[in-house]
Amino acid sequence: MNIAIVGMAGVFPGADSVEKYWENLCAGKDTITRTGGPVQCEGYMKINAFGSIDGMYRFDAEFFGMGERDAMETDPQERYMMMMAHHAMEDAGITVGENDDRIGLVCGAKENEYAYRRYYQTGLTGIERETAKMYLGASLATRTAYKLNFQGPVVQLRATCATGLAAAHLACGFLESGEADVMLAGAVNLSPQNRYYAYMDGGITSADGRGRAFSEDASGCIPGDGAAVVVLKRYEDAVRDHDRIYAVIKGSALRNDGSVKMGFSAPSRTAEFRTVSDALQSAEIKPEQVDMVETHGTATKLGDMVELGALRRIFKPEQKLILGAVKNNIGHLNYAAGIAGLVKTALVLKNRTVPPVVNSEHVSKAAEEGGFVLNRECISLEGRHPEYPLTAGVSSFGIGGNNVHMVLQACPKEEKVGEPQEKMLFFLSAMTENSLKTYEEKFAEWAGGHPEQWQNAAYTLCAGRRAMACRSILVAENKGGSITVKPYEAVGEADEKEYTLTAFTADELEKAADTFLAGGVITAERATDADVHIISLPKYCFADTEYDLFAGEEETSETAQASSESAENVTPMQAVTDIITEVTGCSFSPEDDIEATGLDSLTFVIVCSKIEARYGVSCASIDLFAYDTTGELLNDITERIGEVKSDTVGEDNGPKQDMTVEDLLDLIS
Questions:
Q1: Helices (H), 616-660
Q2: Fewer CB near the terminus (10 Å): N or C of the chain?
Q3: CB–CB of 83/131 below 8 Å?
Q4: Domain Carrier: where (predicted)?
Q5: What's the pTM value of the predicted model, to 2 decimals?
């Protein structure tokens, strides 16, 4: 496999762009938003921390040809997928909307909570509810394809935490089969409730709002939001087109745990080992050639132990394999976690630098015994081994059993950096004057710091961006290191309606300037030599209008527990049975084995939280699979309830916050 990553775009906690994301990682920043201390609630602890992003409801409806109502109804995740796909295409220097019959998209997202809230809203008429059904989640990929005119393979998938990397794996397959010439792959994860999360003993979330993967004091992950898209091409096509290449995907594997594990939500060391091994075999790369692996790294005791165990079966301690753990920085982005890891890994190889692992000060014994390196400062990979390219892997393991591993190498083709220019013209355009003005400011700031890239920038703007109705030109001048960027003043009326650029110099661009400003067509063929090439530039400045159907509405809450009046008429044995049935949907008898309850390690955590909320007894220490029958489990729990009741008769522990429906959804997701 030889698939080039030629473009990328994304938003992450603390970063509104890929460039800011990389800057934060190299600076060793933890970008989780924390808004206060923990709060004891009914059956769980509320941790006021989250990997949140700014502007979840912002969208440029006019740019994508959508009316206000349509934009309001469309789930924010679908809106972000459209915007990220457009930005990624810009980054790749591929003109959006033209000749896109061989461009495809594979993407995924979490449940559309916003759209579901609309669908189940009271007071909707029949036709309103039927209309709302259109936005429940099936149109994530197809709506983006419709708006950006992608006519190749377009697929939507859900593979829980492995979704983003699974999308990239499938996209590579479409390129290898020849079904597409360009593929986009990505994922988005946006949560309407993005201020806090629930913590319970035995769960997967962090006890204190910090992620510490592979550290002795790790206690779980912090939920987070984000979105990212990468643009992929066959390597030989990218070289032919003089594309900027972040990294080259050499091989990948997608497998499932099957039933070779202790429970549905538990990870499998054997399955993870096989997935990484298959990816290396697919890439025809030996384990000793790998420099770094960006791990799944959830910071859960079980997850970290299983992942390290799988890696130790492949990589020898003397290799000193470097491990990355980006969830420590930004949280667990759930469906977008894998694509966030892929973006980071590609940037590691492009920049020949591994950012530090944050928060994991006390490296676990298992990591030390495996010889793994969790660097506390940036590590340069320059000159690490001249005999073969820098190589890195990235893992993404989804709850339920989907496992993906991808192997990448640094591009052997060096990106040419030009000489600082004395003068250059930049052709800018946007759909509205406001967006154009914002982009002028953003681009002028960029140009002031990159005089060596002016020629490549002029080429990228003309060959890789669509010319829109509102236009302007900036002129940059470099006089002895003193740089000025100012608006271009038109000389006169345009003599021609079309102009074909044959070179990207200030003199040549000035000949086309008046034609461009008059709305004429500027043709710039893709480069056929190595003098100029596509580079990353500031992306289109979308309008930031907020579209939120529920803005201003007060959150309503419902208690998740039965009233104390009805509870007095139910025995603890029956109550626990009812709780298990409510959570799993399974009916069972005391003589049945544990499997009949439908419980696994994740659903049992929810059952325990409900029992603790109702009776004040903790069941987190119970080993679910240590019982032969359901009756033994029920007897153990009811005995604990009886002990707590006898110890607390007459006591008043004070009021606790009720568990709301939203809180329960947080626990499940």
A1: 630-647
A2: C
A3: no
A4: 567-641
A5: 0.84
